[in-house]
Design brief:
Layout lengths: L1 H19 L8 H35 L8 E6 L2 E7 L5 E8 L8 E7 L3 H19 L9 E7 L7 E8 L6 E2 L5 E6 L2 E7 L7 E2 L7 E4 L8 H10 L3 E5 L4 E6 L2 E6 L2
Parallel strand pairs: 11-12
Antiparallel strand pairs: 1-2, 2-3, 3-4, 5-6, 6-8, 7-10, 8-9, 12-13, 13-14
Length: 261
């Protein structure tokens, strides 16, 4: 039954895809394995940073509402993620360390606002650059509110960063997978960008659903965004990819091949 549903969904999607542009080809085996591993690692990182920001935001809002806050940036430090809330300067207003278990530590109130560290400054510049690019480009917003996750493109961090723009939602029964974007920056410049869907698709879910499923036409394998939303929804996500309807599952932070036709 599941395979039949997959086939119907993929067939409908392929009709549109063929009219627009060629489908991506399958990757050579070694490249495919490398790309899957990168998607797993990156998807988990996006989730951990996004979740830490959500936990830290709840902690800050419980104590005060500050109209100076103009977003946040995150930094992984050992086994925790430090969330720094910034103003328009940008300068640091608050810092909250969130453990790997998702528990917020004590909030540090920075009065007067504190100068950002080199890492924070680079991340803040990348975030601002990506948001400005999104506003002036042809990005199609799929939510009134977007969350951002900024990750360094290298270790140790340098001028290059990767910014993920993720549609926000307040509905636990909706997974807004459509409208996610990746923007690559170098200093104040955008050097690369991509969308992960063509439409504002949202997956409906409920407590009785055991899994989610979607056809994905832009890549021959599931991406980091599929891993992120699987972790976010706490459900496996079956993904059908071109060119032949290969079936995968993103289950937490792992991607597994189910069937290759």
């Amino acid at each position: 039954m599941i395979r039949c549903i997959f086939a119907i969904a993929l067939a409908a999607s392929l009709t549109t895809a063929f009219a627009e542009e060629p489908l991506p080809k399958e990757l050579p085996q070694d490249q495919e394995a490398t790309a899957i591993q990168l998607a797993e690692i990156t998807g988990l990182a996006i989730y951990r940073h996004d979740h830490a920001a959500a936990v830290a935001t709840d902690a800050v809002l419980k104590l005060r509402a500050d109209k100076r806050v103009n977003g946040w940036i995150t930094e992984e430090q050992q086994d925790q993620i430090v969330v720094t809330f910034i103003d328009k300067t940008p300068a640091a207003l608050y810092r909250v360390a969130v453990s790997k278990d998702g528990v917020a530590g004590q909030m540090a109130v920075l009065e007067p606002p504190t100068r950002l560290t080199a890492y924070e400054s680079g991340a803040a510049t990348a975030r601002s650059t990506a948001l400005s690019f999104a506003l002036t480009s042809k990005f199609q917003p799929c939510s009134e509110n977007y969350n951002s996750v900024v990750l360094p493109a290298s270790d140790p961090p340098g001028e290059n960063w990767v910014v993920y723009l993720l549609p926000g939602t307040t509905k636990n029964n909706v997974v807004p997978i459509g409208g996610a974007y990746r923007v690559e920056t170098s200093g104040p410049n955008v050097v690369g960008q991509r969308s992960f869907t063509r439409t504002c698709i949202a997956l409906q879910t409920d407590p009785s659903a055991v899994a989610l499923m979607i056809s994905h036409l832009l890549d021959p394998i599931p991406t980091e965004v599929h891993v992120f939303w699987s972790l976010w929804a706490r459900k496996p996500m079956y993904v059908v990819t071109p060119p032949n309807g290969t079936v995968w599952v993103a289950d937490g932070n792992k991607i597994k091949l189910i069937e290759r036709k």
